[in-house]
């Protein structure tokens, strides 16, 4: 066995070395983890964040059936031992050539893939020995037990308003914001509402601090795909708000559908009228009486999957 595990990180976001995946790798690796760019890696972790200037060329090459390589050591003839494609974005599990993959895709029937929805990265997993960094948009990670119990009637005593955090109002956000604004007052936070804010991650505003006074949080996904569910709904719920999401119907596989409002159910009848229906006192009582989760996510299954990846890399 090697005396260390050398990892290269390709096309991932800043501070990925403090991510949930890296925390699990460091927990299960029997040897120290290093990031030595001067030598070939045993494990290369590829992500979906490709520079736009290279995107067109890569698309053309894939259309021609060419394998797209990223690592210097692969280009120079020295093969990376194991390639893991890991995406927290709305990209598919097989978007890159790889030996293993981790994505939010549902029902992928291959043993080299593990489904880890994006929202798991906002959960505090310290009780199972996994310590990772929270998003810069929240001040602390979500305690799992918060999602396993109902909001309670106190939520309905808060300001009868909604809040949205957004860096832009591109569709579907623009339509959702406009439609719901005809039903309820919505306070907007982020660059979309304050041009002086440099970026979403550097706004100086923590969602979990601002949302404590609102009854509702408008928190739609950026795009819709089966299995792609981010931190938006659980973060809103953890702050004591009724989440107003926008996702496909399979989201009920992750969250109790009676615990939040899914505007995706009202694409035909109209988002505003659909939300107005949800304001029925009987429905509202059901929303605040239902926990978001009815079971603990399979974090131990994820740990075992990462163990397989690490063992293969160190073989």
Describe the protein in words.
The chain is elongated. The chain has helices at residues 20-28, 52-63, 72-75, 144-147, 173-181, 207-210, 232-238, 271-278, 281-288, 299-314; strands spanning 5-10, 33-34, 43-46, 82-86, 100-103, 113-115, 159-165, 186-189, 214-218, 242-245, 261-262. Strands 2-1-3-4-5-6 form a 6-stranded parallel β-sheet, covered by helices on one side. A 5-stranded parallel β-sheet has the order 8-7-9-10-11, sandwiched between helices. The protein is an alpha/beta fold and 315 residues long. Mean pLDDT is 91; it is low at 59-77. Helix 1 links the parallel strand 1 and strand 2 (33-34). The termini are close together. The protein folds into 2 domains: 5-123 and 298-314, Rossmann fold; 144-288, Glycosyl transferase family 10, C-terminal domain (Rossmann fold).
